Amino acid sequence: MKTAACRAHAALAARLLDGAAGSASAWAPLSLLGRFLIESDIRAIRAGHPALAGGEACAVRLYRGGGDVVWELWGGRERER
Asked: DSSP 3-state assignment of 55?
C-alpha cells in the first residue's frame, strides 16, 4: 500500500513538474497523497485489512473529508485519519 502510494505520488509529481497539468487545481491530488503518506499509520491500516498487505490486487480511493484524508477500500469500508 505504501509502495503504491509512493509510486503514484512520484509519477504525479513528475507529470506536474513537467508541465503536463497546467492548472493550480491539478496539484490537489499530489497534496492529498502527500498528506496520506505523512499522516497515516499505514502499518495499522494494513493490519486491519489484510488485502492491503500486498498479497492481492485491490484499489484504494483517497479523498478529503472534514479536513482529514479519508481512504476507502474499493467497494469496502472507509477509515478516516
From this structure: coil
Instruction: State pLDDT tens for residues 59-77.
Output: 888 999 888 899 888 754 5
In this structure, the number of other CB atoms found within 10 A of the CB of residue 40 comes to 19
CA-closest candidate to residue 31, choices 71, 81, 66, 69: 69
pTM beyond 0.85: no
Instruction: Give the structural domain span for 64.
Output: 2-80
Cell output for 40: 497515516
What is the distance between the alpha carbons of residues 2 and 46, in angstroms, rounded to a whole number?
Answer: 10
User: Which among 73, 28, 67, 27 is positioned nearest to 53, based on CA atoms?
Assistant: 73
CA–CA separation, 13 and 31 (whole Å): 10
d(CA 52, CA 48): 9
